[in-house]
Amino acid sequence: MLGPLLNGRADVVYGSRFMGTPGQVRYFRHEIGNKFLTFLSNLFSDIHHSDMETCDKGFRREVVQNLRLESERFGIEVEITAKVARSRQLRIWEVPISYNPRRYGEGKKIGWRDGVAALFHILHFNLFTSDEQSFKRPWSEVLQQ
């Protein structure tokens, strides 16, 4: 994940569980739910991710410091994606990651309520949040550093 950041090709890097890497079999409904939420996020943000809900994200320091973040729990995934996409100036990369999902007995915490909350967050951060609410400074200033 660090490669695109370190060689200057990316400002933000997402790790994707769905780019053909081997791994443990996942719960079907969870994967379909994730792909549905990723589809809606892509639709509203007009960028094409394969895995918006990944926890593996890397940022240039200046990028993450410029985001005004407010979400808790899994809503942060949607918020970050919407605000990064809103910039229209950040270079966003995806790289394959390996992933071995936890089972419920191992402490898996996400449930259907988190999916409903993600739908709300997709609409809120893509349609009803302004640049002033999303960023501390204009990206033209931030990216010149």
Key descriptive features of the protein:
145 residues; mainly alpha; 3-stranded mixed β-sheet; 7 helices; 3 strands
Description:
With 145 residues, the protein is mostly helical. It has one domain. It has helices at residues 2-6, 28-45, 61-66, 75-87, 112-127, 131-134, 139-142, and strands at 12-16, 57-59, 92-96. A 3-stranded mixed sheet has the order 2-1-3. The mean pLDDT is 90.
Concise summary:
With 145 residues, the protein is mainly alpha-helical. Helices cover 46% and strands 9% of the residues. It is globular, with a radius of gyration of 15 Å.
Q: Could you state the oligomeric state of the chains shown? A: single chain
End-to-end distance, in Å? 22 Å
The biggest beta sheet reads: 3 strands, mixed
H-E order: HEHEHHEHHH
Put simply, the count of helices is: 7
Residues in helix, %: 40-55%
Alpha-beta classification:
mainly alpha
Count of β-strands? 3
- How many structural units, i.e. domains? 1
Q: Approximately what portion of the residues adopt beta-strand conformation? A: 5-15%
